[in-house]
Structure formats: C-alpha cells, structure tokens
Structure of DUF4199 domain-containing protein:
Amino acid sequence: MEKISATRSLRIYGYILGLICVAGTIIFGATKAIGNLWFGYLGNCVMFLGVLFAILHYNHIHHNQVPAKASFAMGVRTTILATTIYAAFLLIFYLVAGRNNDNALQDNNAQYEGFWGFFFGNALFVNVFVGLVAAMLGAYVFKRNQKTDQVKES
C-alpha cells in the first residue's frame, strides 16, 4: 500500500472539506434553506472537525514526532485551502444562480439578501476563525509525549 505524503494529505483534506461545503451550498441553495441559521453551524462544524481530523492524520503520518508548530501550520494551510475552494464556488454560485433562483423548492426564506455580508462574514471570516481555533486546539491536544515547562517554585 502506498504511503501518503503529508503534502498530499493536506490537499486531500482541503479538497474534501471544500467539496463538503460546496455540496451543502448546492443542496441548501436549491431548497432555499440557505437562510436558515443551522446551515451556518453545520458548515462551521464540518470545518472544525475536518481540520482536527487533518491534524490527527498528519501527526499519524509522522509517527507523532512533529512539533506543535508544524501541526498548527498544517491546520492553517488546510483551513486556507478549504476556505478558498468554498469562497470561489460561492462567488460562482451567486453569479450564476443566486440572483435568479426561481427554481428553488421552497420560497419561505430570503434569497441572498445581503450576500456580501454573508460572504465576508460567514464564508470567509467565520470559517477562517473556526479553522484557526481547530488548528490551535488540534496542534496542542493531539501531540503525543507532551512535555510541560518546569514550574519555578519560589
């Protein structure tokens, strides 16, 4: 069985996270349920868990011998890749179907009212923030053989 390099796993996890967010956007956009509040929580949860899983796998590839700084950098790169894929698709989706979405199944939610606020606020800022928190948490929690600093007793 072929061993997956750390760089390749970074791209794989970034693409998978981005595609999950894209699939959610298509599904919820087609049903006009994208305005529901829980959709944002679902996407943020996918980003958080995906980055944690990517860091866990990265540490496993390197036999848990990587420093926390390298694990954090892996999480940041995964977050940036997934957020870039999602943001690019969201812009394309808005330009193609967002302005005239009469084919949707439900009509009880506002369409893309305030799209740019949603785009910069949720798609970029919140996803990057959640990814950074997951990267920081994952880098320091999933590190095996953690060593604490010596406590100075006065």
Observations:
- The chain has one domain: 6-141.
- Residues 103-109 have pLDDT under 50 and may be disordered.
